[in-house]
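re: ur question from earlier - yeah i can do the single chain one, its not a big deal. heres the input i used so u can compare w yours
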Amino acid sequence: MTTIPFEARRFQSTAAYYTRYRVPYPDDLIARVAERTGLASGERVLDLGCGPGQLGIAFAQLAGADVTRLDPEPEMLETAALDAAAAGVNVTFVKGSSYDLGPRFAPLKLTVMGRSFHWMDRPATLKALDEITMPDGCVVLFGDRHIASTPDWRQAVNALAETYAPERSADRERRKGPDWVEHESILLQSRFNDLERVSVIRERKLSPDDIVGRAFSTSVTSPQALGDKATAFETALRETLARLSSEGTFAEIVEIGGLIARRG
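and the output i got, formated as C-alpha cells:
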C-alpha cells in the first residue's frame, strides 16, 4: 500500500492562499453532517490536519462544538488563530500531527479531516482514533471532487506543475497509481467501517487570480515547492489562462462532501 512520506513543513508557504482560494465547505453541508452524526453542543471535535481551520471554525460556529485543531505547520495554526478570532469562536490549537494522537484529546465525538487523510499513515491513524473516540463517535473525511472545469483550466495547471515542480507532481500521481488504496477501502478494514457520504454540488465562477491562488495553495505548486521558479510559473499560468479565455472568465462544477465513518 502506497503511503505519502510525512513532511511536517510541506504546507509552510500555502497558509496565505488556502482559506481564500480553496473550495470552501458550505454551511449547509456542515449542518447536515452535524445532524447525521448526532453532534450536540459542547461535544468535542478534533480538526485533524486542520490547515487554516475552516472545518473547526464551522463546527464551532454552526454546532457549538468544543473544537481542538491539530496541525504540524506553525504558519497554518497562526492563520487558523486569526480566522477563529475574526469569526468570534474559541478553539484550542495544538502543534502536532496524527502521530501525536493520544489520551489528551479524548473523549472525541468527531474527528474531522479536510483533504488531509492522504498525508497520514491511515491505518495507524484510525487505530489511534478508535482508542480516544466515544462509542457513538465518528470520523468524517471532507473533500471535493471536480466534475467539470470550463474552459479546462485544471489541465493547464497540472501540465505546468509537471514542468515546474516535477517531484511534487510525482507525489500527486502516487494517489492515482495502482498501489494506492482508496480511503473507503482503508476505512472498511478499520473499526470505522459503517460508511455514509453526504455531499452538495455547486457551480463556482473563478477569475485568473482565483486559479493562480488555488495553485499556490497546494503543496504541488506552492511558492515553497516552486522556489525560484514561482514567478515563471505564475507568468506561464496567466498566459495560458489568457489564451483559454480572453474575457478572463472560468467556472468549475464541484461536489463537496463528507464521508461519515461510524463503527460497524
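Residues 21 and 219 are 14 Å apart (CA to CA). not sure if urs matches, ping me
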